[in-house]
Hints:
Blueprint: H1 2-7, H2 10-59, H3 62-65, H4 70-112, H5 114-121, H6 124-161, H7 163-168, H8 172-224, H9 230-272, E1 293-303, E2 306-316, E3 320-326, H10 332-339, E4 347-352, E5 355-356, H11 362-366, E6 369-372, E7 381-382, H12 383-387, H13 396-405, H14 409-412, E8 422-423, H15 432-446, E9 450-454, H16 462-476, E10 480-485, E11 500-501, E12 510-515, E13 525-530, E14 537-543
Parallel strand pairs: 3-10, 6-9, 9-10
Antiparallel strand pairs: 1-2, 1-4, 3-14, 4-5, 7-8, 11-14, 12-13
Amino acid sequence: MAKPIALGQVAAIARLSGIAALAFLVQKIAQYGQDTSMAKAALAIVFQLRTQVYSHLQRLSLSYFETAQSGDLAYRMTEDIDRIGEVINKAFHQFLPSVLQFIVVLGYMIYLNWQLTITILIITPVMAILITWFGERIRKLSYRSQGNVSNLSALLVEVFSGMRLVQAFAAEDYMLGRFSQEAEQNRLARYKTEKLKAIQAPVVGSLEAFALLFLLLIGGWQVSTQNITGSNFVSYLAAVIMLIDPIALVTSNYNEFKQGEASIDRVFELMSMQPTVVEKPGAALLPSVTGKVEYRDVSFAYKSEQPVLKQLSLVALPGEAIALVGHSGAGKTTLANLLMRFYDPQDGQILVDEIDICDVTLRSLRRQIGIVPQETILFSGTIAQNIAFGQGDLDLDAIKTAAKIANADQFIVEFPEGYQTWVGERGVNLSGGQRQRLAIARAVLLNPRILILDEATSSLDSESEALVQQALERLMENRTVFIIARVYHCSSIGDCSPCRSHFGIRTGARCRIWDSYGIAESRRTVCPILCPAVSGLGFISSTRRS
Length: 546
């Protein structure tokens, strides 16, 4: 290029400029292809990892989620996995090219003067030890810092979901104090990490400077003894300078790799968790059942020293309603949880239509059991999506039929968008009675042969309770039903008359069972029964009338 410019050869200059422009364009296109390919590969790995971790979490038993923090799990599923993706991207985009450049330049240096190169390599182990030492401490601090962020995230989830309670108790200052404490711990952990990285940079940089000065001294001596020419020594120095950027990038990326390693440790902590309830190898599909349920000598304890159920036996015939009555902690919900296989009993068997539930797949079992919980869980989505929760297809006609049976259609159609009305997180824009009727509609659409009503009306006002009870009556027809109720709130028991009383609260105690469905009679009646003491849990059963 210099000669055509000096001679004023315009055509040659234009031709060389065109070649340079074309080379620049090709280089940028290649860079675009490299960047997008690397990003695509890293994001694909992140997607696969996130999907795999989420799938694994869904297989964990309910006992794990009863102790885990939702905010911590969300942080690990999002930020930690994203950090792993960033590390992978940088490994391909920066780290590997830097290592390749280092190897090529080092080979050129050996070619120019192997004696000088060996002299330079003397400091390499020292530098590697320092970089490793700093990196390991950065990993530990990053692990602690990310744990603090997870705690902060968990606290925010609790506060935002319970903001009504925070404001009702005027606890804003109290929660601000808790938040500030968690945020301060996170700040200190992050500051320690950044301070360590700030120390590392001048230490490694000083080593590089000392190595360069030592090289000048040795190189000058070799030039004076004519072991190397001045031009070759200048070329050698240029090669050494070319090593500075790769070393800096490798050092920086190594720190980020160690931070990413902390995220990997946290993610694989989740993957190392194993479910306590597992399917047997070759577990069969549970066929359509008639609804007979038998608990046979079942014993269960959450903690070995505190048994909840001991050698309990109970048979529920198809179409029979069983009321589980007792104080909180008596084991009512535990019976339902064992039937759903959220937990497995330590002793005994649970059979559905004479089939041990441990011999069938969890999905085929749970798809034949419906539950209407005390606290209805709704997800962000439309009303139709929440009613058809877990269903493959949205059959709007079936959804509407289920809503009518559940006394939900009348309030749904009042919304401008009807069944396509968006339900906020946890259904905050619906009343308690409306949420409960959607839960009943969900159970109707599932059409199970076995139904669990877990204190389904205990937190409702009288008007909502009446509507819900009417819906429950229709839902219970021709199904085996387990009704969970506290002794002081038995309106949900309905027409479960004391034709078979099993266990009670204490010797001589009387449970007031309120027949509020009007099936036995057209008016409400109070039915006192005497229950002999066994375990603090009462069973009252009757055959349902369709």
